[in-house]
Amino acid sequence: MSENSTKGIWKVISASSMGTMIEWYDFYIFGSLAVVISTKFFPSDNPTAAFLSTLATFAAGFVVRPFGALFFGRLGDIIGRKYTFMATLLLMGGSTFLIGCVPSYETIGFFAPLLVLILRLLQGLALGGEYGGAATYVAEHAPAGQKGYWTSWIQTTATVGLFISLMVILATKNILSPEDFDTWGWRVPFWVSIAMVGVSYLIRKNMDESPVFAKAKKEGTTSTNPLKESFGNRYNLKFVLLALFGATMGQGVVWYTGQFYAMSFMKTVLNIDSSQVDKLLGIALLLGTPFFIVFGWLSDKIGRKYIMMGGMLLAILFYRPIYKMMYTTTDVAHKTEIIANTTQNTETSKDNTTNAELKITTTTKTYTDGTTYTKKETYASDKKEPISNSIIHINSHDEWILIFLVFIQVIFVTMVYGPIAAFLVEMFPTKIRYTSMSLPYHVGNGIFGGLLPAISTYFVTHSKAAGKADFYLDGLWYPIVIASISFVIGMIYIDNKNKTTHL
């Protein structure tokens, strides 16, 4: 590979990756702030229901991703890769910015969650068209035999986008007071995205069309009906279904378990301080991200199949032991309380919305290992049951244990996700590649993966209410079962050869 061609592919990757990273940042800001958003856009009298509603709204953005894949995939195969994913970038950026502008539930009532849901759906449509375009664009520029390596740089963007979203949130929290962040500061990360989108748009605007697509268009061999040729052709449909059920379905649940469910689990089940979770998750992501490149490169040498299937198998076998260790590491029932340091304060106030009398009791406990535990119970005169909120701040030793356990999950993610772009683009011919690869990717990630936080949190909540001792592990049955099905299908039907006649 010559120096000029290397320079050229790096320009392509930079333009594609930056835009894709920003779109993932936009998408994940919502999930990263789910706990805060649940108090702003939904009724506050039932925190659990509000949080589950927020996760459902978050999941709705994933559910519509396949429709975005069909709509924008068709455009990408007809008019070109470049202009299609420029459009998705602007749609995503505008929707994210507007979410940060929506008034709270207290101000406009049920219009708040409705507007957020609509904008969330637009985000999902945009992301449905973005990934396929970026991955196809890079793959069609990459040299033969190196597509796994070069497309793996695109694969890092989802994790980097999540990492940057966490860092922006953390920085905003550190700059503002807790009161200011809770009042309006949580909107800042949504607003920040519009500047990044503008920069990325200017970069992408100056890029050339994919040479493979440009050649096909010049020769008149592009598709006039990509949807019909992708899904109406039984031979091609077979590969679409294989890509979905044998790879992206399992990859999707592993991705969201190792990053998003891990974050949700630490915040809502382990009750660890939100800023502390963002910090330790950020460290784990930073340490794990280079392995996307490692496994993408390795897939060029030994094939895509066994790396992806290996990641699924490890996840299936180790998720329960990992999450059990996460729970026991931070469970205050296993720690020694310093009784003399325990404090309890009670304050009274009035709810401005309902005029109900409020009695707020705050109990703080410290433990010999440095862990602190704060429980706030709010008794409202118009409610039968108090609203309880617990926050744990773990010691540095426990922090590093959790960082390691999340890092291991990120390794599983990099194994299944690093080679997936090259795997998908190699399955389909140029004229219908954007459409054909986008749909299984976004059904696998958008439907099976995107629903994971809401489904798993529901399982945990239901099992906890039923009094199960290991309730915190029940949320893992969903990713374990889905990944197991995908593993079996992939092992039987996917060919490990990583060469293709389509590129």
From TrEMBL:
It comes from the Bacteria. It comes from Flavobacterium hercynium. GO terms for molecular function: transmembrane transporter activity. One of its GO terms (cellular component) is plasma membrane. PANTHER family: MAJOR FACILITATOR SUPERFAMILY TRANSPORTER, SHIKIMATE TRANSPORTER. It is found in: Cell membrane. This is MFS transporter. Pfam families: Sugar_tr. The chain crosses the membrane at residues 21-42, 48-72, 84-105, 111-129, 150-172, 184-203, 239-260, 280-299, 306-323, 400-425, 437-456, 476-494. PROSITE patterns: MFS, SUGAR_TRANSPORT_2. Residues 12-498 form the Major facilitator superfamily (MFS) profile domain. CDD domains: MFS_ShiA_like (cd17369). Keywords: Cell membrane, Membrane, Transmembrane, Transmembrane helix, Transport. It is a multi-pass membrane protein.
